[in-house]
From TrEMBL:
This is Putative pre-16S rRNA nuclease. Pfam families: RuvX. Belongs to the YqgF HJR family. Keywords: Cytoplasm, Hydrolase, Nuclease, Ribosome biogenesis. HAMAP family: Nuclease_YqgF (MF_00651). Could be a nuclease involved in processing of the 5'-end of pre-16S rRNA. It comes from the Bacteria. It is found in: Cytoplasm. NCBIfam families: RNAse_H_YqgF. SUPFAM superfamilies: Ribonuclease H-like (SSF53098). Its EC number is 3.1.-.-. InterPro entries: RNaseH-like_sf, YqgF, YqgF/RNaseH-like_dom, YqgF/RNaseH-like_dom_sf. The keyword Transport does not apply.
């Protein structure tokens, strides 16, 4: 099982995916800014869903460069890895929040506010699948 994480300062969206089915499902919105509490919530998900890979989205710039926030996400992943044994992968999450906004167009503001990070986490897992598919195509060439 794979966990997608849209890590944020105040909210962290999560989604999960069975690699046999390859369909991401939004899971839990962690409305917390305390890193220890976010870590605890993620550890609970990892245990409950038997997660072996955690995919963090990195908000790269238009040029593909990492921001200071990317460094924070990497530091948090190291913090998480001190407590759980999982593979950690980073994928570009550029545009996932805007795509989530588009998916949620026409919905009430309070629904959008809650669902945006969940959908972004699912889109991060889609990006992960795209990276895997690209790597498999390159291996077959």
């Amino acid at each position: 099982m794979v966990l997608g994480v849209d890590f944020g300062r105040k909210k962290t969206g999560t989604a999960f995916m069975d690699m046999n089915i390859k369909i991401p499902f939004p899971l839990l919105l962690i409305e917390e800014s305390n890193a220890r509490k976010v870590k605890r919530a993620l550890m609970d998900i990892i245990e409950e869903k038997n997660i072996d890979t955690v995919v963090f989205g990195l908000p790269l710039s238009d040029e593909g460069k990492e921001s200071e926030w990317c460094s924070e996400i990497r530091r948090f992943s190291d913090f998480l890895l001190k407590s759980v044994k999982v593979n950690v992968v980073f994928v570009d999450e550029y545009g996932t929040s805007k795509e989530a906004d588009y998916i949620l167009r026409g919905r009430k503001k309070n629904v959008k506010k809650k669902a945006n990070d969940l959908i972004a986490a699912a889109l991060i897992l889609e990006n992960y699948l795209n990276v895997l598919n690209m790597n498999n195509k390159n291996d077959n060439v």
